Amino acid sequence: MTVGSATTRVLIPSGVLGLGIDPDDLARGLDRQPHVIAIDGGSTDSGPFYLGTGTSKYSAAGTRSQWRTLMQARAQAGIPLVIGSCGTCGTDATVDWMADMTRSIAVELGHSVRIARLYSSQPPDRIATAWAAGRITPLVPAPDITGDTLTATSNIVALAGVEQIQAALDTGADIVLAGRATDTAVIAALPLHRGSHPGAAWHGAKIGECGALCSTNPTSGVILVSVDGDGFTVEPMAETARCTPHSVSAHMLYENADPFHLHEPGGTLDVTEATYTALDGRCVRVTGARWLPAECYTVKLEAARPVGYQTTILAILRDPHYVAHASLWADRLRAFLLVDIERRMALAPDAYTLEFRVIGLNATLGPLETGSCVPTEVGVLGLITATSQEIASEIGRLINPYVLHFPLTDNEELPTFAFPYSPAQCDRGALYEFCLNHVLELDDPMDAFRLEVEDWAHD
Fold first, then answer.
1. Does pTM surpass 0.90?
2. What is the 8-class DSSP label of residue 362?
3. Where are the beta strands (DSSP E) in 27-103?
């Protein structure tokens, strides 16, 4: 494609739909006459539950309110509105969830719109066939997979790139509802389609993927990325925010192990020679990025599968003696309970697991924790994972009195701790884990995706 000189302005209202959109900042962005409104709808940040269940992390009410605002903005500007990774996880079910919401809002607003739905869900048998044919390659790190791994998944999605978003835009869609997609694809798609510099389009998309996170006021949300034939300019729309060379260049480190290279479907972004120039105290101009096409076209695969059912229990320790020895107490309690559970319930060893995490000491890093201060109080969180919710719940009830009263040694008074709520144990339901971190080779970018278009006319 010949690099064109025309500038494509992409208005990014927020880092993700569901975080909130400032109406004044959005209005300032619309005054700049953008060519497209692009926003991300999700990620894997909040864990495998949402992909496992095919549901959204964000509230329906909050999502609907903000989507209504963006649909009004789209109609006012007369430009496309694109969202990727609908409903957090980007499954077909969450694309349909967003489509139902879009139709309902269109009726309220009296809008007639063309809606393109880009589906990213993958049938397990298709992925199993591709795996057997050697068309699936693990990333680092990636779990070992078998045919059984794939058939046990509850949801598999492929991450769309710009080609799939462009196909949706080519339908003349007013609104594109994309399933799972890379955060950058929804931003880079139109600039690339209009002939912008490939390295600049991808780099600008990476910088703009989380909205104002690339500015001095990361919670302000709305930014404008303008991509042309040589580079891009990024500007926050909030009056209280500025983009600086530091804030912009630093975003290459966000969720990226390599600050100079970013792998995307179809190639790699290389910013080794990029330069960042402050323009007027608010805007930054960036040039020098390169796009390196790959020899074959691949898309990343994500999948989740159920791995059991979980019950939790939480106790609060404030006695200085127990706080100072909380980890030792939790280890002693767990050892006692494993014997007691086996004696009273006669469960197979692989029927359950029991874990205690000391909140305030080492709950996140465990043995890697380097802190040494002793807090005033700690929480001890018990995690019971079992092959059924009934087993997990029964274990929760069995260990309840010991979590409340278990002594640190055999020769001291029986302590009493605190439960912050009653009942002390909570049944969490099904537990999921990610089970794919691989790429799928495609002969054509649309081979793993499905595109459906509808004209929604308000009566």
1. yes
2. T
3. 36-40, 81-84
**Is the separation of the CB atoms in 245 and 277 below 8 Å?**
yes
How far, rounded to the nearest angstrom, does the alpha carbon of residue 231 sit from its chain's CA centroid? 28
> What does the alpha-carbon distance between residue 208 and residue 13 come to, in Å, rounded to a whole number?
10
Say which residues have a Cβ less than 8 Å from residue 337's Cβ, sequence separation at least 6. Answer: 354, 398, 399, 402
Q: How far apart are CA 58 and CA 66, in angstroms?
A: 11
pLDDT tens column, 91-146 = 999 999 999 999 999 999 999 999 999 999 999 999 999 999 999 999 999 988 88
Closest CA to 167 of 187, 203, 193: 193
**Residue at token pair 């992909």:** 51
Distance between CA atoms of residues 361 and 318, nearest Å:
13
How far is the C-alpha of 79 from the C-alpha of 42, rounded, in Å?
Answer: 22
Name the CA radius of gyration of the chain, rounded: 25
Give which of 220, 183, 216 is closest to 202, Cα–Cα. 183
Tokens standing for 276?
């960042």
Listed in sequence order, the residues at least 6 apart from 146 whose beta carbon sits closer than 8 Å to its beta carbon are: none
Query: Phi and psi of 175, rounded to 5°?
Result: -130, 130
Q: How far apart are CA 261 and CA 391, in angstroms?
A: 47
Residue linked to tokens 């991450």: 159
The answer to whether 84 and 186 have CB atoms below 8 angstroms apart is yes
**Cα–Cα distance for residue pair 180/300, rounded to 1 Å:** 10
pLDDT tens digits, residue range 285-309? 999 999 999 999 999 999 999 999 9
